[in-house]
Every structure is written in C-alpha cells, then in structure tokens.
C-alpha cells in the first residue's frame, strides 16, 4: 500500500529515523486506542535518550490521542457493530446518520458525519450503553509527561485543491491501479474502505468508469483535507505558517518556544 497511503520513500526513511511505517498488516485489527498505547510506549522509550521527537500526521484524532489522550468509553457487545456494519451494507450510510441524529444530535452535529467508521462508533456506544456518545467526551484525561509544540502548514484553498488533484494523477501514473488490483481479494476489510482504494474497487467491480473513480478520489481527498483544516484550526495553540515560509524561520520559532 505504498502508493495509496503516500508512505515515505526509501530515501526519506534513510534520511531520518521513522516509526510506525509499514508496521501493520492490512488484516490486523488496529484502531486509535491501539495507536495511542503503542505511541506512548515508544515515546517513553525515545525520551530516555532524546529531548525532542517530531510527530507528523494528517489525522487529527490520532494526533490528539497522543498529545491529549483519548476519551474513555465502556466496552459494548461486539455484535452491535456487526449489526451496524450489515445495516451500512444494506441500507446505506444515510440510515445510520438518521439513527444517530435521533439518539445523539450533539454527536451528529460534531463528528465527521460522512465517515461511516465514526458514525458506527458513535452509534454502538449509544446503543450499547443507552447513553449518548457525546456524554463520554471531554472528561478529565491522564496528564502527559511531555509538552507539545503544535505547528501547522497552510495554503490558499485553491492551491491545496489543485495540488491534491495533481497528487492523485501522479499516484495513478506511479501504479495505484495495479496496487489496488493486488488487494482486490481483501476489499472487504475496513482498512481498505479508505480514499484511493474504495473508489478503484468500484471500478474493478464494474460499477464506475476509471475516469469517474479517479475524479471521486480527488473529490473525497479534497473533502478530507477540508475536514483536516477544520479539526486542526480548533487547536488555538497551533502556530500556522504558509507552506512556502522559510523552513529556517519555522525552526527558529520552535527553538524560541523550547527556550
């Protein structure tokens, strides 16, 4: 999944020590809770010899899990999720969205409502606990033993969208279609229900043309970028820099904050 996940290249991996790259099989069950535990364990080890560790990422939920900690949710019957996944297949995402709006309008208005994983997660808690998913959020969390400096890179929206479109074209030129074909027998896995893979599976299953599938990858990537910006803009402690800003001035800023 090198192309579709835009994983660091071999040269990039040699330039700096990376962690959690290609460390899981697509068939492994892995979620944000598992990532939080693994990342904190690794950080505790790294901080024994290093004062600064850099985390780079696009998923705000995963970033917050490490820097702030996750909300705690009670265990619920796994059959609830199985039932909701079947409902997604047979009735579509909209039916789950309507159900969530009825059970927990606060969550309906605040989570990424077009992301089936997030909708199902909220619903299984609502159903399994008979309490709103939102009632478990923003409780006091365990304090981290490190401090975080948050830096954001931004650009005009038109530039971001144009670069996304160009990036998808480059991924196709590099062989994304063949990469997805190689995973065709695993398309039922949750890990492959993601942008860049799910659209090409529609083409391989003769539901869409290839041109339309590529246009959908671009559209869904742009939507994802918009959600990313919305999430990260909520963090008032983030210092934002234009993507063309001198990297040395950014590192100077970080050094000043550290001092």
TrEMBL record:
SUPFAM superfamilies given for it? P-loop containing nucleoside triphosphate hydrolases (SSF52540)
Q: What class of enzyme is it?
A: transferase
Q: Does the keyword Cell membrane apply?
A: no
Q: Which UniProt keywords apply?
A: ATP-binding, Magnesium, Nucleotide-binding, Transferase, tRNA processing
Q: Which reaction does it catalyse?
A: adenosine(37) in tRNA + dimethylallyl diphosphate = N(6)-dimethylallyladenosine(37) in tRNA + diphosphate
Keyword Nucleotide-binding in the entry? The reply is yes
Please give the Pfam families that the UniProt record associates with this protein.
IPPT
The record's annotation in InterPro entries points to: Dimethylallyltransferase (IPR039657), IPT (IPR018022), P-loop_NTPase (IPR027417)
Kindly list any coiled-coil regions of this protein.
none
Q: Give the protein's cofactors.
A: Mg(2+)
EC number(s) given by UniProt: 2.5.1.75
Similarity field:
Belongs to the IPP transferase family.
What PANTHER family does its record include?
Answer: TRNA DIMETHYLALLYLTRANSFERASE
Biological function: Catalyzes the transfer of a dimethylallyl group onto the adenine at position 37 in tRNAs that read codons beginning with uridine, leading to the formation of N6-(dimethylallyl)adenosine (i(6)A).
Q: Cite the NCBIfam families for this sequence.
A: miaA
Q: What is this protein called?
A: tRNA dimethylallyltransferase
Provenance organism: Corallibacter vietnamensis
Lineage here is: Bacteria, Pseudomonadati, Bacteroidota, Flavobacteriia, Flavobacteriales
């Amino acid at each position: 999944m090198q192309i579709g996940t835009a994983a660091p290249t071999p040269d990039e991996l040699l330039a700096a020590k990376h962690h959690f790259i290609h460390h899981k099989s697509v068939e492994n069950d892995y979620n944000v809770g598992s990532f939080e535990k693994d990342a904190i364990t690794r950080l505790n080890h790294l901080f024994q010899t290093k004062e600064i560790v850099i985390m780079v990422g696009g998923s705000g939920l995963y970033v917050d899990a490490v820097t702030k900690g996750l909300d705690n949710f009670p265990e619920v019957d796994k059959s609830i999720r199985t039932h909701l996944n079947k409902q997604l297949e047979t009735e579509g995402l909209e039916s789950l969205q309507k159900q969530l709006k009825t059970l927990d309008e606060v969550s309906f208005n605040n989570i990424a409502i077009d992301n089936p994983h997030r909708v199902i997660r909220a619903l299984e808690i609502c159903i399994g606990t008979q309490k709103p998913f939102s009632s478990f959020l923003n409780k006091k969390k365990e304090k981290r033993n490190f401090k975080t400096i948050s830096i954001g890179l931004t650009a005009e929206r038109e530039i971001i969208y144009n670069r996304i479109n160009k990036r998808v074209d480059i991924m196709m030129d590099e062989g994304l279609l063949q990469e997805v074909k190689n995973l065709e027998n695993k398309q039922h896995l949750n890990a492959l229900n993601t942008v860049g893979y799910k659209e090409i599976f529609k083409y391989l299953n003769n539901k869409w043309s290839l041109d339309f599938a590529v246009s959908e990858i671009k559209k869904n990537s742009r939507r994802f970028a918009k959600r990313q910006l919305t999430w990260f803009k909520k963090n008032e402690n983030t210092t934002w820099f234009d993507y063309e800003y001198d990297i040395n001035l950014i590192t100077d800023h970080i050094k000043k904050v550290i001092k």
